Amino acid sequence: MGQPEVSRGRPATPTLGKAMLNKYARAFFTRVLTPFAAFLIRRGVSPDTVTLIGTAGVVAGALVFYPRGDFFWGTIVITLFVFSDLVDGNMARQLGRTSRWGAFLDSTLDRVADGAIFGGFALWYAGGGNDNTLCAVSIFCLASGQVVSYTKARGESIGLPVAVNGLVERAERLVISLVAAGVAGLHAFGVPGVQYLLPVALWIVAVGSLVTLIQRVVTVRRESAEAEAEAEAAVAGHGNGSRGSEAAK
User: Fold this and answer.
1) Which of 90, 100, 156, 175 has the fewest CB atoms nearer than 10 Å to its CB?
2) CATH number 1.20.120.1760 is the correct assignment for the domain at 16-230
3) What is the pLDDT of residue 83?
4) Binding residues for Mg(2+)
5) C-alpha to C-alpha distance for 127 and 13, rounded to whole angstroms
């Protein structure tokens, strides 16, 4: 699901694994997983392979379990594969690699994993969950999450910093949804009332994603206007300087 950006050449953006593990837990699991990462390196396994396997596990957990309403076990499977975030990053650090390809692969597979998770929710509500409204909300969460990520990437590609911390970014979307899904899945084991947590979480993510999208669009509009104003001022200043030089002659 993604190597730490310092090792993979990507700007600092929270990944699913980083979002679900605080800095103390990450330090602990990094120490625990370092020998395993070294073992994989000795066996010739690449960080990219671990990234692919981690994403495949998340996709399988989401699309095999969630459409059947098995939210608890689906979340358990997804969480287990989240540790690939730490393993592949650990491997990249041990190998001393920075890679534009790794950053591209990382970011692309993040979108695949997100789509599988919210797609799994949508399939459940379109089928056994029998709730067209929540199916639509799940699809909106999927689509808005992709667009929110695109707005930042597109803004940066045209030279803008997109300097805004959105209300609900990728890490928040996934943590809210997965924690709610896992707890809601306990309803199958007889825990009462928890089944309502996932619908509430999806509404929160949908509204938060919309707010974040608006924040980013407004930020890009403002930064674009500022950049254009600076460019015009620079051109005007250059023109005045040229005329001053000719007058001096």
Assistant:
1) 100
2) yes
3) 77
4) 85, 88, 106, 110
5) 34
